[in-house]
């Protein structure tokens, strides 16, 4: 009966968010209270569970997500993103411009949050469309596929970072595995899939072409790449060194301090403050103003993650998570596939990749805690599932439709199928890695 109550609670969550348009944070709180009462949690324990869920979830994530947002905002506003995109497109050449846009989207997508990257890259896409007489989808799909993969698979993006914390995974290993899984996903869903969309001819809109920063005012190519990718370099290098040196090494404590995700982001933001701020003639006050705006951009994302944490904690405190894990563990479905499937179903119902990933994590957590499944790969599996078949209940669907001037049918044929390819390819990549590891 308790499992039926959980299904009813998820159904209520879908109804509140999708049909009544209730704010996701408020919806999570209401559903957490509703499910706690149905599952028989004493009211004092229910209140404590909600507080614990909020505190535990945000405690390990606030620093990472906020500093990540600050870094992304500075990369965008300083012109570093423009420098990165221009350099990569020049490197790949006009003939292979879709591949250049794919790599650009992936590099920029690592530090930038998805919506910021989407809006930031649209002017670049349409400027290239007009300059080289391209089909907008041939230019847009490869870049959007890369942005989507980075958003769903890779920390320090909110959902993957939250899953790493919940599952006790290693941020560096998850990022390394995520990059490996991302490569086939963005190739298939990007340049290769875009070739099948040639018959769709949307009209490029001149209204999205914005004034570029003059070349002589841009940061250097080296500075742009190094600053944007510094968190990746630090996480991957410290993880590799930790494995090579071992726990008994005298350098191990220092290495662990540097490898902590919050410390990595702090080092990156201090470096960026100089390279993309003070060094370019910006005052400390103006750089801090950019950081302040970045915090406003992610405030609601943090609240949604916190809300999802309350729902997870209620499921744990009531004991229903272990009951669900017991039933799921008896199903003839591998845990990694199960995590992907749960996230995919919630994604199709709700539309939000972040909510889909966090909600699925709350139910799959006992299976991960019991061992027998690689937590780093489970993060990626759920992340891939959370991108499955974006459609009319997803804001990304409508952003893509309006920016590229498509019909609903054409958006499903392009955007929705692109997201589906990303999701399925990600799962297959995770399963292959699982066999190797």
TrEMBL record:
InterPro entries: Glcn_transporter (IPR003474). It is found in: Cell membrane. Its main location: membrane. Keywords: Cell membrane, Membrane, Transmembrane, Transmembrane helix, Transport. The chain crosses the membrane at residues 26-46, 58-76, 96-129, 136-154, 174-197, 218-241, 253-277, 298-320, 340-365, 377-400, 412-433. It comes from the Bacteria. The keyword Cell membrane applies. Belongs to the GntP permease family. PANTHER family: GNT FAMILY GLUCONATE TRANSPORTER, HIGH-AFFINITY GLUCONATE TRANSPORTER. This is Gluconate:H+ symporter.
